[in-house]
Amino acid sequence: MKGIILAGGRATRLGPASRGTSKQLMHVYDKPLVYYPVTTLLHAGINEILVISTPEQIGAFEALLGDGSAWGCTFSYEVQTEPRGLADAFVVGADFIGDDDVALILGDNIFYGYGLGEQLQRYTSPDGAVVFGLWVPDPERYGVLEFADDGSVAAVHEKPADPPSSYMVPGLYFYDSSVVEIARTIEPSDRGEIEITAVNNHYLAQGKLEVAKLPFATDWFDVGTFDAMLDAQNWVAGQQRRKGLLIGAPEEAAFREGFIDADQLRHLAQAEAFSGDLAKSGYGERLLRFLDFETE
Question: Does Metal-binding count among this protein's keywords (predicted)?
Answer without folding.
Answer: yes
